[in-house]
């Protein structure tokens, strides 16, 4: 009897392949195996029987399975997910246009850095305050109408900011915009979770957040150009993109019956268990640190740094953010693959460590070129910072939304509120270096705390 060719196999524990009952260790390597009626090939994300014949043939490479489902061919997301992603993109393009201009615009009223931070924080403060009441508005008006009304409030307040005559008007109008933002974000997330089935919810949330991320990072390119025309032009442009977003939502989103629930949905994990999960704790701290660094330091102080320290035109802020946005967009796909295949833990640890170092170096830059380089490095890290913590929350909560996601987002809002105020105060009292050092400390702390997370990709909540 002829000897059987040896085939190196990497033996490791894993789930059986759906439908074939064959452990993944027998499918991990591309090697020669005899065809037989019982042979399997994990092609196209499923198990397919191959005909017998006794000939030696190559078996397709192993395809990873997560949570009992194939990560191969993608099932199409519900239409509402794509619509909400488009809405998020237009909202954040307009918001990104305002980001590089707002601090300089506020400074034009003759106020200090603390007042600049207060305007930036007012938006997030009112979001945080309004969130508990928005649920009742959604029940009264419905998700689609609440979304459109919320976007309309932000659009109107933005246009009025462009017409403001003094600092108090700007502060009040930005706070009103925060209320509209809360109405939009809560109603949009409610629609997203009701439209997406459980096995597509993670990808649906990721697509939705991707619209925010790409739009928010691409907007400053237009904002820098509009700033060369007028400091008020970006606010009117923002109002226009919001009108487009609201129109898309009203026209294309389906009407949903709130009484409909998915019968197959598993019960949500108890909040006490979610809060005690190291993955959830690390994700919340990471979101707070990112809110502090991105809104409190990068968005609030980098534009002022360009104008008042580097002595360059405000348009350079938009150029720098635009180049960094391209880098971040290019990093989104590999970042998502890294988070899903390597794990949430290494993604958070490495990206926040890199971001911390960048925050420490930015106030020391000698010219705009070095600043752009550092912002590009930060943009690449931000692609991981935006995906890994959210994925960790999904793991800890068992793939269900609701309160765990709301609290996770509240940590980000809290960082966005405290960051501009305290970073501005540190810049006024001490120096730019002290303000950026605060972001370094928080991001480094988030990276260290993430070491408590379990190793691996653990897609299911701990028992």
UniProtKB/TrEMBL annotation:
<protein>
    <submittedName>
        <fullName>MFS transporter</fullName>
    </submittedName>
</protein>
<keyword id="KW-0472">Membrane</keyword>
<dbReference type="GO" id="GO:0022857">
    <property type="term" value="F:transmembrane transporter activity"/>
</dbReference>
<feature type="transmembrane region" description="Helical">
    <location>
        <begin position="347"/>
        <end position="365"/>
    </location>
</feature>
<feature type="transmembrane region" description="Helical">
    <location>
        <begin position="81"/>
        <end position="106"/>
    </location>
</feature>
<dbReference type="InterPro" id="IPR020846">
    <property type="entry name" value="MFS_dom"/>
</dbReference>
<dbReference type="InterPro" id="IPR036259">
    <property type="entry name" value="MFS_trans_sf"/>
</dbReference>
<keyword id="KW-0813">Transport</keyword>
<feature type="region of interest" description="Disordered">
    <location>
        <begin position="1"/>
        <end position="24"/>
    </location>
</feature>
<dbReference type="InterPro" id="IPR001958">
    <property type="entry name" value="Tet-R_TetA/multi-R_MdtG-like"/>
</dbReference>
<feature type="transmembrane region" description="Helical">
    <location>
        <begin position="171"/>
        <end position="193"/>
    </location>
</feature>
<feature type="transmembrane region" description="Helical">
    <location>
        <begin position="205"/>
        <end position="229"/>
    </location>
</feature>
<feature type="domain" description="Major facilitator superfamily (MFS) profile">
    <location>
        <begin position="80"/>
        <end position="458"/>
    </location>
</feature>
<dbReference type="InterPro" id="IPR050930">
    <property type="entry name" value="MFS_Vesicular_Transporter"/>
</dbReference>
<feature type="transmembrane region" description="Helical">
    <location>
        <begin position="235"/>
        <end position="253"/>
    </location>
</feature>
<feature type="transmembrane region" description="Helical">
    <location>
        <begin position="315"/>
        <end position="335"/>
    </location>
</feature>
<feature type="compositionally biased region" description="Basic residues">
    <location>
        <begin position="1"/>
        <end position="13"/>
    </location>
</feature>
<dbReference type="InterPro" id="IPR011701">
    <property type="entry name" value="MFS"/>
</dbReference>
<feature type="transmembrane region" description="Helical">
    <location>
        <begin position="432"/>
        <end position="451"/>
    </location>
</feature>
<keyword id="KW-0812">Transmembrane</keyword>
<keyword id="KW-1133">Transmembrane helix</keyword>
<dbReference type="Pfam" id="PF07690">
    <property type="entry name" value="MFS_1"/>
</dbReference>
<feature type="transmembrane region" description="Helical">
    <location>
        <begin position="145"/>
        <end position="165"/>
    </location>
</feature>
<feature type="transmembrane region" description="Helical">
    <location>
        <begin position="112"/>
        <end position="133"/>
    </location>
</feature>
<dbReference type="GO" id="GO:0005886">
    <property type="term" value="C:plasma membrane"/>
</dbReference>
């Amino acid at each position: 009897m002829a000897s059987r060719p040896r085939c190196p196999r990497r033996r490791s524990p894993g789930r059986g392949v759906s439908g074939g009952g064959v452990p993944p260790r027998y499918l991990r390597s591309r090697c020669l195996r005899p065809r037989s009626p019982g042979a399997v090939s994990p092609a196209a994300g499923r198990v397919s029987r191959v005909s017998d014949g006794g000939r030696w043939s190559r078996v397709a490479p192993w395809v990873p399975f997560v949570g009992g489902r194939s990560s191969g061919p993608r099932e199409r997301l519900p239409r509402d997910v794509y619509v909400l992603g488009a809405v998020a993109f237009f909202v954040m393009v307009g918001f990104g246009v305002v980001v590089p201009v707002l601090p300089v615009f506020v400074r034009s009223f003759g106020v200090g850095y603390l007042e600049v931070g207060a305007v930036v924080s007012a938006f997030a403060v009112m979001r945080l305050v309004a969130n508990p009441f928005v649920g009742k508005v959604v029940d009264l008006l419905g998700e689609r109408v609440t979304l459109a009304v919320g976007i309309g409030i932000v659009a109107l307040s933005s246009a009025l900011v462009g017409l403001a005559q003094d600092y108090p008007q700007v502060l009040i109008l930005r706070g009103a915009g925060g209320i509209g933002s809360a109405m939009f974000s809560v109603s949009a997330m409610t629609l997203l979770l009701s439209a997406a089935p459980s096995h597509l919810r993670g990808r649906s949330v990721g697509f939705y957040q991707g619209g925010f991320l790409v739009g928010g990072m691409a907007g400053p390119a237009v904002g820098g150009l509009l700033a060369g025309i007028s400091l008020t032009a970006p606010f009117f442009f923002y109002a226009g993109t919001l009108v487009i977003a609201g129109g898309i939502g009203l026209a294309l989103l389906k009407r949903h019956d709130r009484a409909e629930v998915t019968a197959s949905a598993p019960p949500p994990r108890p909040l006490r268990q979610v809060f005690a999960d190291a993955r959830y704790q690390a994700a919340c701290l990471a979101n707070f640190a990112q809110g502090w660094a991105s809104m409190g330091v990068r968005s609030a102080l980098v534009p002022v740094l360009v104008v008042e320290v580097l002595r360059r035109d405000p348009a350079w802020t938009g150029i720098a953010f635009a180049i960094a946005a391209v880098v971040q967009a290019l990093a989104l796909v590999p970042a998502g693959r890294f988070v899903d295949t390597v794990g949430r833990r290494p993604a958070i640890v490495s990206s926040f460590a890199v971001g911390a170092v960048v925050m420490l170096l930015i106030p020391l830059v000698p010219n705009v070129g070095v600043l752009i380089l550092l912002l590009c490095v930060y943009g690449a890290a931000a692609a991981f910072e935006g995906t890994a913590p959210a994925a960790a929350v999904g793991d800890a909560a068992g793939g269900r939304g609701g309160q765990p996601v709301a609290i996770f987002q509240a940590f980000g809002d809290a960082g966005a509120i405290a960051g501009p105020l305290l970073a501005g105060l540190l810049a006024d009292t001490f120096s730019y270096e002290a303000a950026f050092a605060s972001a370094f400390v928080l991001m480094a702390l988030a990276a260290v705390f993430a070491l408590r997370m379990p190793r691996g990709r653990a897609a299911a909540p701990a028992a």
